[in-house]
Amino acid sequence: MVVDPTALVLARAQFAFTVSFHFIFPAFSIGLASFLAVLEGRWLLTGRALYLDLYRYWLKIFAIVFAMGVVSGIVMSYQFGTNWAVFSDKAGGVIGPLMAYEVLTAFFLEAGFLGVMLFGMRKVGKGLHFAATLMVAIGTAISAFWILSVNSWMQTPTGFVMSPDGRFLPGPSWWDIIFNPSFPYRLVHTVIAAYLTTAFIVGAVGAWHLLKDTANEHARKMFSMAMWMAALVAPVQIFVGDVHGLNTLEHQPAKVMAMEGHYQSHPDGAPLYLFGIPNDREQRLDYPVAIPKASSLILTHDPNAPLDGLDTIAPEDRPPVWIVFWSFRIMVGIGFAMLALGLWSLVARARKRLYDWRALHRTAIVMGPSGLVAVIAGWVTTEVGRQPFTVYGLLRTADSASPLAAPAVAASLIAFVVVYTAVFGIGVWYIFKLMSHAPHPHETGIEQTERAPLRTAGITPGPTQNPTREQDGSPLPTVEDDR
After folding, report:
1. The model's pTM
2. CA distance 91 to 98
3. Which of 332, 331, 372, 389 is nearest to 153 (CA)?
4. What ranges does the record give for the region Disordered, renumbered to this chain (predicted)?
5. Cβ atoms 153, 177 nearer than 8 A
């Protein structure tokens, strides 16, 4: 089979666009679901209405983020059949069941309890509603588990057998497939990234409203919680990222060589290149800014340890260094910026200036989207660093694409860009609109309106029905009744 090179590039661009657009929503919703569980748990534990107000405030945002994540994710699965049919045919025996497990466990769990979480606070008991919130939070984590297992298997494939016609089939143990060598590291690193992403968005919203009113108790609380997360979890993430990098060096050395900009081998200790301009044509790093032997120290804990370079990798098996080199630095740079902001917040706490240090608040607002940028940069590092393979070392990207003409792929790519920009652009605008309003006492949740059906099973309420009263004429519970 001959694949049009232009069609291949467009197919890769289309998947990169859709997955990048999609990934920002789960990266936010995974952390936000857990944050909502913490808020509701604190409300039940302390009885403070402030936590319920914050829960209802962020629940409205979660509903939109979750919906956009689901819709954008469904589209991606269709591309396996349209643009990547050969990959689906060859690897479907392994990745198909894993993705089905994600639907059967995570998605069904989320869908089963999401309605109770969004609309059931006045319908069920407090304990049952909290259980529904926990189930949604657990469901988002389970979803990450299965999706990252699929991706990790593509990075470090194990536990499979090859059929005579070149298909990947499950081996005797699914355990080896699911828990492949890179999966535990990738799972922990990604989930922590989702929590930090949420923390910095919540912190930015809190800081925004603190700049307007430093006495706003709700803004104070969510800013304080977010800064605790930044201060405590950012250093953990840096440590986990380092361990994940060592695992990558063991199983995907070419990716690490591209991340480090090591075109040439270094037998007496490799330098850590902070900056430079990768030159794939000449196979060198132009204008490098380096710390001697620091890369060997980080990767092997021995400054004099030799490290191989891309000169030990066949030219056709080398990833594009320019993209991997810079996406990795963006991710790492943001990680250290998060750590710095977390430490700054500790200083502000110690000086009792957490809520009135305006420079800290402005910096937190600037850092608000940093988690989203970091997860996209990390995803680019992971995926581009795997090239030129879809299943690392075994199935090339050029051999995975569908035999499509370039104009057909270009047309669908343009359609995706237009539709995504319009639909999700409106959704993001509405999220910003919700965030622009400060949470306040007696915050309302997601409520029914006259345009929404009050009953199911085919019974449509009449136009004269009063939505403020139950069927027996008694008034609906008020916000205060939930406190």
Report:
1. 0.87
2. 11
3. 389
4. 443-483
5. yes
Buried b (16+ CB within 10 A) or exposed e, 341-357: bbebbeebeeeeebbeb
Identify which of 63, 13, 4 has the alpha carbon closest to the alpha carbon of residue 414.
13
d(CA 105, CA 294): 44
User: Helix, strand, or coil here: 150?
Assistant: helix
Matching residue, tokens 């240090």: 357
Rounded distance between C-alpha atoms, residue 137 and residue 44, angstroms:
17
Closest CA to 76 of 430, 383, 389: 383
Contact 334, 200 (CB under 8 A): no
Contacts of 125 (CB under 8 A, 6+ apart): none
Those residues whose C-beta lies under 8 Å from the C-beta of residue 100, and which sit 6 or more positions away, are none
3-state secondary structure of 471: coil
How wide is the angle at C-alpha 213 spanned by C-alphas 208 and 216, nearest 5°? Answer: 95
The conformation of residue 261, written as its DSSP 8-state character, comes to T
Contact 295, 271 (CB under 8 A): yes
Q: Taking a C-beta distance cutoff of 8 angstroms, is the pair 88, 401 a contact? A: no
At position 314, the amino acid (one-letter code) is: A
Q: Give the up-direction half-sphere exposure of residue 176: CA atoms within 13 A in the CB hemisphere.
A: 10
- Each of the 483 residues of the chain gets a pLDDT tens digit; together they read 546 788 888 989 888 888 888 888 888 999 999 999 999 999 999 988 999 999 999 999 998 988 888 888 887 878 888 889 899 999 999 999 998 998 888 888 888 898 888 888 888 888 899 999 999 999 999 999 999 999 999 999 999 999 998 899 998 889 999 999 999 999 999 999 999 999 999 999 999 999 998 888 999 999 999 999 999 999 999 999 999 999 999 999 999 999 999 999 998 888 999 999 998 888 888 998 999 999 999 888 888 889 999 999 999 999 999 999 999 999 999 999 999 999 999 999 999 999 989 999 999 999 999 999 999 999 999 999 999 999 999 999 999 888 888 888 899 889 888 988 888 888 889 989 988 888 877 767 666 554 544 454 444 444 444 444 444 444 444 444 444
Asked if the bond preceding 388 is cis, omega within 30° of 0, the reply is yes
The amino acid occupying position 41 is: G
Structure tokens belonging to residue 167: 């298909």
* Amino acid identity, position 164: P
Angle at 5 between CA 2 and CA 9, to 5 degrees: 130
